[in-house]
Amino acid sequence: MRKVWAAAIGLAVVTAVCGLAQVRPSPTMVIGLDFPTIGWVRYDKDGAIRGTWGFNLGLGISSRTYTAKDGLQPEKLNFFWGWGTLAILVPYLEIGATYAFPMDTDKLFCVSAGGIVAFAGLVAALAGYPLPWWVYPAPYISFSFWL
Protein backbone atom coordinates (compact mmCIF):
# COMPACT_ATOMS: atom_id res chain seq x y z
CA MET A 1 0.00 0.00 0.00
CA ARG A 2 2.90 2.34 0.75
CA LYS A 3 4.28 1.84 -2.75
CA VAL A 4 0.93 2.77 -4.28
CA TRP A 5 0.78 6.01 -2.24
CA ALA A 6 4.41 6.83 -3.09
CA ALA A 7 3.72 6.21 -6.79
CA ALA A 8 0.55 8.37 -6.66
CA ILE A 9 2.37 11.23 -4.92
CA GLY A 10 5.30 10.96 -7.34
CA LEU A 11 2.93 11.03 -10.32
CA ALA A 12 1.13 14.07 -8.88
CA VAL A 13 4.42 15.93 -8.39
CA VAL A 14 5.63 15.13 -11.92
CA THR A 15 2.27 16.18 -13.39
CA ALA A 16 2.30 19.46 -11.45
CA VAL A 17 5.87 20.31 -12.45
CA CYS A 18 5.34 19.46 -16.11
CA GLY A 19 2.01 21.27 -16.15
CA LEU A 20 3.53 24.45 -14.69
CA ALA A 21 6.31 24.38 -17.25
CA GLN A 22 3.74 24.56 -20.05
CA VAL A 23 1.85 27.58 -18.71
CA ARG A 24 2.04 30.59 -21.01
CA PRO A 25 3.18 33.73 -19.16
CA SER A 26 0.33 36.18 -18.58
CA PRO A 27 1.76 39.49 -17.34
CA THR A 28 -0.49 42.55 -17.09
CA MET A 29 1.97 45.46 -16.64
CA VAL A 30 5.22 46.60 -18.27
CA ILE A 31 7.83 48.62 -16.34
CA GLY A 32 11.27 49.46 -17.69
CA LEU A 33 13.52 51.63 -19.81
CA ASP A 34 11.58 50.90 -22.96
CA PHE A 35 8.66 52.15 -25.06
CA PRO A 36 6.40 52.18 -23.07
CA THR A 37 8.16 52.87 -19.77
CA ILE A 38 5.02 52.19 -17.74
CA GLY A 39 2.23 50.40 -19.53
CA TRP A 40 -0.11 47.50 -19.97
CA VAL A 41 -0.10 44.31 -22.00
CA ARG A 42 -2.64 43.74 -24.81
CA TYR A 43 -3.99 40.23 -25.40
CA ASP A 44 -6.03 38.86 -28.30
CA LYS A 45 -9.15 36.71 -27.92
CA ASP A 46 -7.01 33.54 -27.79
CA GLY A 47 -4.93 34.81 -24.87
CA ALA A 48 -1.76 35.53 -26.88
CA ILE A 49 0.25 38.68 -26.11
CA ARG A 50 -0.33 41.02 -29.07
CA GLY A 51 1.49 44.11 -27.79
CA THR A 52 1.85 46.82 -25.16
CA TRP A 53 0.65 50.38 -24.67
CA GLY A 54 1.31 53.06 -22.09
CA PHE A 55 3.42 56.10 -21.22
CA ASN A 56 7.11 56.70 -21.99
CA LEU A 57 9.91 58.76 -20.41
CA GLY A 58 9.82 61.07 -23.42
CA LEU A 59 6.58 62.58 -22.02
CA GLY A 60 4.39 60.81 -24.52
CA ILE A 61 2.40 57.67 -25.25
CA SER A 62 3.60 54.42 -26.83
CA SER A 63 2.04 51.44 -28.54
CA ARG A 64 3.90 48.33 -29.68
CA THR A 65 2.50 45.41 -31.71
CA TYR A 66 4.21 42.02 -32.13
CA THR A 67 4.05 40.65 -35.66
CA ALA A 68 3.89 36.88 -35.04
CA LYS A 69 0.49 35.25 -35.40
CA ASP A 70 0.88 33.57 -32.01
CA GLY A 71 1.99 36.79 -30.27
CA LEU A 72 5.04 37.28 -28.08
CA GLN A 73 6.68 33.97 -27.22
CA PRO A 74 9.16 33.48 -24.35
CA GLU A 75 12.70 32.38 -25.24
CA LYS A 76 12.27 33.38 -28.89
CA LEU A 77 13.13 36.44 -30.96
CA ASN A 78 9.87 38.40 -31.39
CA PHE A 79 9.66 41.14 -34.04
CA PHE A 80 7.52 44.24 -33.52
CA TRP A 81 6.54 47.63 -34.86
CA GLY A 82 5.31 50.56 -32.83
CA TRP A 83 4.23 54.16 -32.79
CA GLY A 84 3.79 56.93 -30.26
CA THR A 85 4.69 60.46 -29.30
CA LEU A 86 7.64 62.16 -27.61
CA ALA A 87 7.41 65.53 -25.82
CA ILE A 88 3.61 65.17 -26.08
CA LEU A 89 3.42 66.16 -29.78
CA VAL A 90 6.40 64.70 -31.71
CA PRO A 91 5.30 61.49 -33.47
CA TYR A 92 7.63 58.50 -33.84
CA LEU A 93 7.67 55.06 -35.46
CA GLU A 94 9.78 52.11 -34.36
CA ILE A 95 10.68 48.61 -35.53
CA GLY A 96 12.75 46.01 -33.76
CA ALA A 97 12.92 42.71 -31.94
CA THR A 98 12.36 41.58 -28.35
CA TYR A 99 13.77 38.53 -26.60
CA ALA A 100 11.67 37.51 -23.59
CA PHE A 101 13.29 35.64 -20.67
CA PRO A 102 10.73 33.91 -18.39
CA MET A 103 11.28 34.89 -14.74
CA ASP A 104 8.33 33.08 -13.19
CA THR A 105 5.16 31.40 -14.42
CA ASP A 106 3.66 34.77 -15.39
CA LYS A 107 6.55 37.28 -15.37
CA LEU A 108 9.05 38.15 -18.11
CA PHE A 109 12.30 40.09 -18.44
CA CYS A 110 12.55 41.49 -21.97
CA VAL A 111 15.50 42.89 -23.90
CA SER A 112 14.59 44.88 -27.02
CA ALA A 113 16.70 46.34 -29.81
CA GLY A 114 15.53 48.35 -32.75
CA GLY A 115 15.35 51.65 -34.50
CA ILE A 116 13.18 54.66 -33.85
CA VAL A 117 12.41 57.55 -36.19
CA ALA A 118 11.09 60.78 -34.64
CA PHE A 119 9.39 63.27 -36.96
CA ALA A 120 10.29 66.51 -35.15
CA GLY A 121 10.03 68.62 -38.29
CA LEU A 122 6.35 67.78 -38.66
CA VAL A 123 5.49 69.57 -35.42
CA ALA A 124 7.70 72.54 -36.33
CA ALA A 125 6.07 72.85 -39.76
CA LEU A 126 2.57 72.64 -38.29
CA ALA A 127 3.51 75.35 -35.77
CA GLY A 128 4.57 77.64 -38.62
CA TYR A 129 8.35 77.54 -38.13
CA PRO A 130 10.39 77.70 -41.35
CA LEU A 131 12.23 74.45 -40.61
CA PRO A 132 12.54 71.48 -42.96
CA TRP A 133 10.66 68.28 -42.23
CA TRP A 134 13.45 66.82 -40.14
CA VAL A 135 13.52 63.14 -39.42
CA TYR A 136 15.67 61.82 -36.57
CA PRO A 137 16.55 58.10 -36.80
CA ALA A 138 18.23 56.41 -33.82
CA PRO A 139 19.07 52.81 -32.82
CA TYR A 140 18.35 51.68 -29.25
CA ILE A 141 18.60 48.82 -26.78
CA SER A 142 16.11 48.66 -23.91
CA PHE A 143 15.08 46.50 -20.97
CA SER A 144 11.72 45.92 -19.30
CA PHE A 145 10.01 43.79 -16.69
CA TRP A 146 6.59 42.38 -17.51
CA LEU A 147 4.72 41.85 -14.24
From TrEMBL:
Residues 1-21 form the signal peptide. The chain crosses the membrane at residues 80-101, 108-129. The keyword Signal applies. Keywords: Membrane, Signal, Transmembrane, Transmembrane helix. It comes from the Bacteria. This is Uncharacterized protein.
